[in-house]
Amino acid sequence: MKLACLFSGGKDSTYAIHLAKKQGHDVVCLLSIFPKSEESHLLHHPNLRWTKLQSESMNIPQLTIISNSNETSDELIVMEKLLQNAKEQFQIDGLVHGGIKSKFQKEKFETLCLKLNLVSIAPLWGTDPKEYMNQLLDSNFHFMMITVSSDGLDEQWLGKLISKSDIEVLNNLSDKFGFNLNFEGGESETFVISCPLFSHPIKINKFTKNWDGYRGRFEIVDAELNYNA
Questions:
Q1: Which of 1, 14, 210, 229 has its CA 20 to 30 A from that of 24?
Q2: What are phi and psi of 115, to 5 degrees?
Q3: Could you tell me the residue range of the domain that residue 38 belongs to?
Q4: Radius of gyration of the chain (CA)
């Protein structure tokens, strides 16, 4: 099937593309919605403007739209416009997304797809958190944590490229503090800088870190594709 992917630049949406392609689907466009603020319950916020580099590296065109409201109902209207646009431009049959266990998100996406006569595909759905995190690294996905907002996750994790040993540490912290190891509850957001889908990795030239004692953000200020890697 020809699919669009709801794309944030993080590990889940990028890995969902990887799995969809392995299943024989053709991911023909990326759909990225710029939320009004980080208070959105449906959409990712940080570093979204740099998804254009990932789009270029994967050679998958990207459609973007801005949401002027944090209300889920308004965001779904914006998403519907974007999906309709993708149907017209790319003749898509369905939508792939990186949902793992959020029934709230999954049901919203499925309802929207049903309305537009599209198939909703969630290849990560129900995966075991620790197995999934290790599977990402085994599949040669290189990703960093770009936000943290949970007990047990401090400033040291901001901008950190995740390794196998980090997953063990995160797993222990997850057990102790009760956050989702795969971060689906928003405890952290991630950004993929290299994976088998990319022709070139992303090189971060400049960044800032913001930390308020509980929440933190790694903000990419300047980045480019590394054609020498």
A1: 229
A2: -60, -35
A3: 2-121
A4: 17
